[in-house]
Amino acid sequence: MPQQIRAQETRAAIIRGAAAAFEQRGYGSTSLAQVSAAAGVTKGALYFHFDSKEALAVAIIDAQHTESVSAGRELLDNNVPGLRALVSITYELARQLRDDLIVSAGVRLTIEAVNFSTPVSASYLDWIAACEEFVRRGIADGDVVPTVDVRAAARFVTAAFTGVQVVSDVLTRRGDIDQRLTEMWTLLLPGLVAPERWDDLKDLPERVQRERVAARP
Amino acid sequence: MPQQIRAQETRAAIIRGAAAAFEQRGYGSTSLAQVSAAAGVTKGALYFHFDSKEALAVAIIDAQHTESVSAGRELLDNNVPGLRALVSITYELARQLRDDLIVSAGVRLTIEAVNFSTPVSASYLDWIAACEEFVRRGIADGDVVPTVDVRAAARFVTAAFTGVQVVSDVLTRRGDIDQRLTEMWTLLLPGLVAPERWDDLKDLPERVQRERVAARP
């Protein structure tokens, strides 16, 4: 038993070390020797847990995905109104990208993984499915206009968030991501909100951004 | 003179070879030996023109940027209405991404270049500036609502396009990019179009997509 726990701790340390090394140098330019140094484990221990660099990258993507999806799950389970949940989750993912090395490494690897032999489309497909659920709930709440193409909206919100974080990363190392998300939602809401709910919802993005800043520990 | 022309041809062949090698294996995983093999030049010739792998990547990004920006320039010079030009340029960039190896390699490198010592933000900043010009022209044309935040709209269109092409690349190797762009514009237009122009412009994305397919050689 203790041995099994030790093995799990080593595996977690390797994933953290690899995330740090990949974030610093980029995936392709990082050697497994650099990963074992960053993780503080021997190369033997590294190979015991992961048989290739790609296996390590996939483990980081999985860890990131689990963490990000659980934030979405929480909003769904807590009966937050659909449109508010859809807006909120983008600020929460932005926070994870800024504060959590596993998340930022995982998201970057997902984008760089086009050349992987393991398909990484599950991350996007799961997010598109979660966004569909938020949009559908938003329609049921009366906040989202019922004529909206739910699948198209879910796909575009996922893609738009991806682009906002990529551009924010290149231009400001994600320093401006909250402000850029508020701009994104300000431009997107007119195509989503039911006309009779417009007056109540038009400043939802600013409200969510302000509440999140106020709630910071 | 012929020697200078030969040198330019060698340089162009190296850029093409490097683009192909980077697209196939990813930037970080490609060695300079693989680049010289793909380009059909000696390692000596490669080092004569580029003193590092990063210098090669920056040359590809520059070549892609020149090609993409000239498409935007053409729309601006031909007095195409601003909103139509803004919509059109996204489909034209999508075409370049599908058909032109230098463009797809350059765009991918721009995203992966966060760890470069050379800043690559110029690509995004130039596109944001071009989009600003399109949006401002759209306001002058009466197509875009004058209360829109021009800078925010330009930034978001640039980011949204980036995300749409990244997600389309991961999910379908860009096979669905035109359809995803039409969905993006369908969701974005209500936040951009002046109410009195809505009836004329609401199907602009489908019209542009159809015209481009019809015009294909």
Structural commentary:
The structure is a homodimer of 217-residue chains. With 217 residues, chain A is mostly helical. Helices cover 76% and strands 0% of the residues of chain A. In chain A, α1 crosses α2 and α5 crosses α6. The two termini of chain A are 37 Å apart. Chains A and B meet through α6, α7, α8 and α9 of A and α6, α7, α8 and α9 of B.
Task: Report a brief summary of the structure.
Chain A has 217 residues and is mostly helical. Chain A has helices at residues 2-25, 32-39, 43-49, 53-77, 82-99, 101-112, 121-141, 150-172, 177-188, 198-201, 204-215.
Strand segment count of chain A: 0
The helix-and-strand class of chain A reads mainly alpha
CATH superfamily of the largest domain in chain A: Tetracycline Repressor, domain 2
CATH class wording of the largest domain in chain A: Mainly Alpha
Question: What are the secondary-structure elements of chain A, in order, as H or E?
Answer: HHHHHHHHHHH
Global shape of chain A: elongated
Termini distance of chain A?
Answer: 37 Å
Largest interface chains and counts: A-B, 46 and 46 residues
Low-confidence stretches of chain A: none
Quote the beta fraction of chain A: under 5%
Number of helices of chain A: 11
List the domain count of chain A as a whole number. 2
Lay out the secondary structure:
Two copies of one chain form a homodimer.
Chain A: H1 2-25, H2 32-39, H3 43-49, H4 53-77, H5 82-99, H6 101-112, H7 121-141, H8 150-172, H9 177-188, H10 198-201, H11 204-215
Helix pairs in contact in A: 1-2, 1-4, 1-6, 4-5, 4-6, 4-7, 5-6, 5-7, 5-9, 5-11, 7-8, 8-9
